[in-house]
Amino acid sequence: MLIGVFTPVSAQKKELKAANALYQQFHYAKAVDAYKKVLEKGQPTLEVSQKIADCYRLMNNPKETEFWYAQVIGFTGHTAKDIWNYAEAARKNGNYAKAQQSYSAYAQAVPAEAAVAENLAAACTRAQDWLAKPLAYELKKVTALNSDNADFSPTYYQEGLVFTSNRPGTEKKAEVSGWTGKPDFKLFYAKGNDSTWQAPELLPEPINNKFQNGSAAFSPDQGAIYFTRINKVKKKTKKANTDPFSWVKFQGGNEYINRLEIFISEKKEEKWTEPKAFPYNKVAEYSVGHPALSPDGNYLYFASDMPGGQGETDIYVSQKQADGTWGKPENLGQNINTPGKEMFPTFGPDSTFYFSSEGHNGMGGLDIYAAEGSGSTWSKLRNLRAPLNSPQDDFGILFDKTNEAGYLSSNRETADGSDDLYTFKLVRVPCNLAGKAIEKIQVKPGVFREAPVENVLLQLFKEGDTTAVKAFSDANGVFSFPILDGVQYVVKGSKPGYLTRSVTVAPNCESTLDMIKMGMVLNRNTLNKPIIIENIYYDLDKYDIRPDAAVELDKLVRTLKDNPTIKIELSSHTDSRHSHSYNNLLSQMRAEAAVKYIISKGIAADRITAKGYGETRLLNKCADNVNCSEADHQLNRRTEFKILKVN
After folding, report:
1. What is the pLDDT of residues 143-179, one digit of tens each?
2. In a 3-state reduction of DSSP, which class is residue 581?
3. Where does the pLDDT of residue 242 fall: very low under 50, low under 70, confident under 90, or very high at 90 and above?
4. Distance of CA 603 to CAs 345, 589, 608, 611, Å?
5. Carries keyword DNA repair (predicted)?
6. Which residues contact 398 (CB under 8 A, 6 or more apart)?
7. 404 phi and psi angles, rounded to 5 deg
8. Listing from the earlier edge strand, what are the strands of the sheet with 420-426?
């Protein structure tokens, strides 16, 4: 009887030992099956449930990870790390309420890390807000390029895309990873566009070879390719990572551990040369991968877990030297890198820097971020938000020349955590611009009434475009145009007898029912009639052009450019306080400073004259020794221009 009892227990221990061996060898796909067989033959245990949950975590399968860690934390004896892993998985699946509860539980269990957990709980609330109000992008899978396995990190090449995939049939004898149970990664090229794609083909040797290859970038002239290659080193190699590929989307196995390297190949006579190693590869100690070149080709950015970084993986930059070699890598610092993971750098057509991070408390998993700057200095970090980001992994973004469409990689809709290619485009919300053309008629000094101007020709231009949409103001001065959210426009108004006027409009429309309102104030082109330039202020006893004054002077610059045949006098006036000589000098210096600024903006010097009138042209009774309010004195302190000549 005892034999009958102990034999299954002994067999179960043997199967558990075999499952643990698979786990230690990074054969997570096989280990999961082995652990599940152990569970089928006995009672669920904390140890086995932890191992299954961890296998799914390492295989980047958040759905199964969340399910199994939910089982784990139901056992007495689970660890704070189990609570953390459950919270992370729940956040990756968009189950933010569960994630917040678990982050709070972790904060209680590990007070030293309470601030980190509380920040992530707050990030969950922010992510829910972003999902509720997504930005105006339309996403869809690139079904013609995606496979049942992983497809990611697209980059433009020739007439299509180069991307990474571990789809079946990439080699006659494709290695299958014990880590994920899937084939090796290779680089593919697909010719076409969103309308039609040809079948993806392997990049030829020597780019693709017996090694795993992926995450590529091309030089600006597409004469060189920089790509990631996997090298296997013994597990006991110096500083070997015990969790080597939770960040690179490649896999390890057996007695070896995989490390990333960057290789460079040049195209000569339409063939790729034998790839050369990036001089800062150091496969015995750390990984270097995910290359990206700045638009001018002078800086190479990459991800690495080399010693001395900010966290698990950081982004570094190497500058091209005068002799064509690459300089010593520099860490991008704390504005970009965190104690977590940063990787997959790319550039937009406007030189905006993009990368993915788990460390900036985003929506969950890898989020895509944008930054402004150059070289090794980057700032103004911003999360691209939903729908470009999701609770899952989002990375490898690629913008087209319009900067409003492109491709990205994400595992947001896959059951097993594998990645797909998505195309995206900005969908602008249509709305209406409602304007009114008016002129201001002076009733008395400092007091004006508004009068509509009818039959004004209004022309609507997209910023940088010379094609105009035209309309005329009605008897009430009213006009309207259909416009799109987020597009910057210039509205130009003109009518004989008036100065042409241009106004910039940057609409923010949330609905097609939104009405964006604007005013078009026109001034008559009467000779020698003063026109006040509003809101020109100077510091006490100073004549320097302040930033707020520069904004108003820029409007006069535009008026001069819109009316290239006029010549003007720009005058400065003071109140009656101080002496006549002082006021004359100060006003002249202020007028000259304003004219100098306008000339610096491209206006010919012979079109504008500076004149300081001091207190000689007061608009009211506030002369010397007259008791006046500050408002009355302010009325006299003004800057004006008048038309001297129309050619």
Report:
1. 999 999 999 999 999 999 999 999 986 555 556 665 5
2. helix
3. very low
4. 42, 19, 8, 17
5. no
6. 154, 155, 156, 346, 406, 407, 408
7. -125, 0
8. 137-141, 420-426, 405-410, 394-399
Q: Is residue 213 a contact partner of residue 187, using CB atoms and an 8 Å limit?
A: yes
Looking up tokens 């004549």 gives 543
- pLDDT for the residue 486: 87
For tokens 């940057």, name the residue: 506
> The tokens of 254 are what?
């057996």
Give the pLDDT mean for 309-316. Answer: 94
Bridge partner list, 221: none
In terms of C-beta density within 10 A (0-12 exposed, 13-18 middle, 19 or more buried), how is residue 496 classed? exposed
Check residue 413 and give its pLDDT: 87
* Token duo for residue 163: 């991307």
Look at the pTM and tell me if it is higher than 0.85: no
> What residue type is 264 in one-letter code?
I
Phi and psi at residue 546, to the nearest 5°: -75, 160
Could you report the per-residue pLDDT of 438-477, keeping only the tens digit for each?
999 988 877 889 999 999 999 999 988 899 999 999 999 9
CA dist., res. 622 & res. 528, Å (int): 24
pLDDT single digits (tens) 264-277: 999 999 999 999 99
CA 605 to chain CA centroid, nearest Å:
42
User: How far, in whole angstroms, is CA 410 from its chain's centroid?
Assistant: 16
Single-letter code of the amino acid located at 151: D
Rounded to whole angstroms, the Cα distance separating 24 from 14 reads 15
| Three-point CA angle 346, 348, 351, nearest 5° | 100
The pLDDT value given to residue 4: 36
pLDDT greater than 60 at residue 424 = yes
d(CA 229, CA 102): 38
Residues 6+ apart with CB under 8 A from 417: 59, 60, 61, 62, 63, 411
Q: How far is CA 647 from the centre of its chain?
A: 49
Most confident range, picked from 35-44, 208-217, 452-461, 518-527: 452-461
Task: Give all domains of the chain, ordered by start, each with its CATH number.
Answer: 2-132 (1.25.40.10), 143-426 (2.120.10.30), 430-521 (2.60.40.10), 531-646 (3.30.1330.60)
Q: Is 149 left (phi over 0), alpha (psi -120 to 50) or beta?
A: beta
When comparing pLDDT for 446 and 44, which is higher? 44
Query: Across-strand partners of 641?
Result: 531, 570
